[in-house]
Design brief:
Elements (H helix, E strand, L loop, with lengths): L13 H15 L6 H8 L3 H7 L3 H26 L4 H13 L1 H14 L3 H24 L4 H25 L4 H12 L2
Helix pairs in contact: 1-4, 1-6, 4-7, 5-7, 5-9, 6-7, 7-8
């Protein structure tokens, strides 16, 4: 987690606490979110925390709500892609997964969703939408049902794999992305 940023002299907001909790979620996982760590990071006392939240469960509930909104925003972004031609739609989806601002949050939310059923449901809905959009694009490209299904499944699984493997293997290069799209959309 970055160095503490003392906030003395200015009042923290709920969003400040959620931002700090999100940073911990992204960098260290849900288990690292503790009142004492958040207070140290923000340079405030526990009294400040209790001014905004009754307990850590209330913060975690608010953070889960925030994560659900992030996933809903991603779903809307995907819905907006449906007007693009099929190959451009696939390219745009690959760019979204490759965007570091998106994948850091998405990977953290997906990891948390493994132990939180309410988040698991929204992640599953996002995956269903990714599959549906990919499947439709493959059908528009002229692939029969079994091939369209297999290609859409491959895109979905590759995206999820990218979210989890990019820390060890680094981001996909432009060549990697181009070749991947060509493999999926070409005959």
């Amino acid at each position: 987690m970055p160095e503490p940023s003392p906030r003395r002299g200015s009042r923290l907001t709920v969003d400040d606490w959620l931002d700090a909790a999100m940073q911990l979620l992204i960098t260290e996982g849900v288990g690292a979110i503790k009142i004492s760590r958040l207070c140290a990071h923000l340079g405030v006392t526990k009294g400040s925390f209790y001014w905004h939240f009754t307990d850590i469960a209330a913060l975690m509930s608010a953070l889960a709500d925030h994560c659900r909104k992030v996933e809903e925003s991603a779903r809307q972004t995907l819905a907006d892609l449906q007007t693009l031609p099929p190959v451009e739609r696939i390219e745009a989806m690959v760019r979204l997964v490759s965007d570091p601002r998106r994948w850091t949050v998405e990977a953290a939310v997906r990891t948390w969703a493994e132990t939180d059923e309410s988040l698991a449901d929204i992640v599953a809905a996002l995956d269903d939408q990714i599959f549906d959009i990919s499947h439709e694009a493959m059908r528009e490209l002229g692939f029969d049902e079994p091939e369209a299904h297999a290609r859409a499944t491959t895109l979905l699984y590759a995206g999820i794999g990218y979210l989890h493997a990019r820390r060890r293997h680094g981001p996909a290069s432009d060549d990697d992305t181009r070749i991947f799209i060509d493999l999926l959309t070409g005959r």
